[in-house]
Q: What sequence folds into this?
């Protein structure tokens, strides 16, 4: 399924899958908390299968990309379409990022096994979004999930 250029990252967010105050203190807790956001959303999926897939992907190499950002992701048969969850950590989470900066902005991306093209394009769109230091600052200043969604929706 090709990415629709008129869609923003916000269009892939599962309903209710944004947290502006993650409580995780380490990588396993962060992955669990992010997957729980998807599991608690109105999207029908198997949260345990998603967590297993995300942990498997993370064991192959960190998804911490630097500048306080991580993009854990996986393709998993437990989901029928591609979904995104976003979490902000006020304290930061050690995540083995190349620059060793604790992660404060998380984008969790999950999709079905046949979504490789869309998956890669969304990863690129996320990377493009967070390379802008002003956008990272605005995300971290968000006090509500609605503010995060609005930022990801764009101008």
A:
């Amino acid at each position: 399924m090709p990415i629709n250029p008129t869609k923003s990252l916000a269009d892939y967010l599962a309903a209710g899958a944004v947290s502006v105050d993650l409580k995780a203190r380490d990588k396993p807790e962060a992955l669990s908390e992010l997957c729980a956001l998807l599991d608690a959303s109105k999207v029908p999926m198997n949260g345990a299968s998603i967590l297993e897939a995300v942990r498997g992907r993370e064991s192959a190499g960190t998804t911490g990309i630097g500048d306080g950002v991580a993009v854990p992701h996986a393709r998993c048969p437990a989901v029928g379409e591609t979904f995104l969850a976003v979490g902000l950590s006020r304290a930061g989470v050690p995540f083995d990022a190349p620059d060793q900066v604790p992660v404060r902005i998380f984008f969790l991306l999950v999709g079905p096994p046949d979504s490789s093209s869309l998956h890669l394009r969304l990863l690129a769109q996320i990377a493009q979004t967070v390379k802008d230091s002003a956008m990272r600052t605005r995300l971290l200043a968000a006090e509500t999930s609605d503010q995060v969604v609005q930022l990801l929706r764009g101008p």
